Amino acid sequence: MSDPVIFKSSYFLRALNRDLNPFTPNIVLIDEEHIEFKRRNWHLISEDTETLHFKNITGITVDSHLFGTTITIKSTGNDPIQIRGFWKKEAQKIKELCATYIEANNKKNSNEALTKAIENQRGNYSVADELSKLKNLLDQNVLSQEEFEEQKRRLLNG
Question: Domain 5-87 is of which CATH architecture?
Fold first, then answer.
C-alpha cells in the first residue's frame, strides 16, 4: 500500500469563505482505499474528520468559482461532503485521483463478486460452459482481458 497523498487548503481561499483560523488548513488525505477530510471544528478546540471508502463514493463534482472551488463528494448512506479552500488545479487533481481509485475499487469488487459467483456454482457447471460464458463477457467488453485471464486461470486450476 502506498503512502497517502496529502492536499492542504489555502488560507486565502478559506478566509474568503469566512474560515478565519489561519493555523489549521483543511486537509484531504487520499490513499488507495479511502479519502479523508479533516477540518478544525467551529469550537476551534479539536478537529473533525470524515472518512469515506472509495467503494461507497457515488460521485465527485468540482464547482469552480472566481476564487477557488467547492468539491462535493457524494456517497451511499452519507450526506455529501463539501470541501472548500482549494485552488482549481488542486481540486482537479483531487477529483482525478479519486476517480482513478474509484474505478480500481469497482473493478476489484466486480472481479471478487464474479469469483464468488463462480465458486458458489462449482458443482453445477462444466468448465467448458463457464469458459464459453467468460469469453462471451470478454467479447461484450464486460470483462477486460486481464479479468478474463484471471477467471480462466481460476476455472482451470479450480
Answer: Roll (2.30)
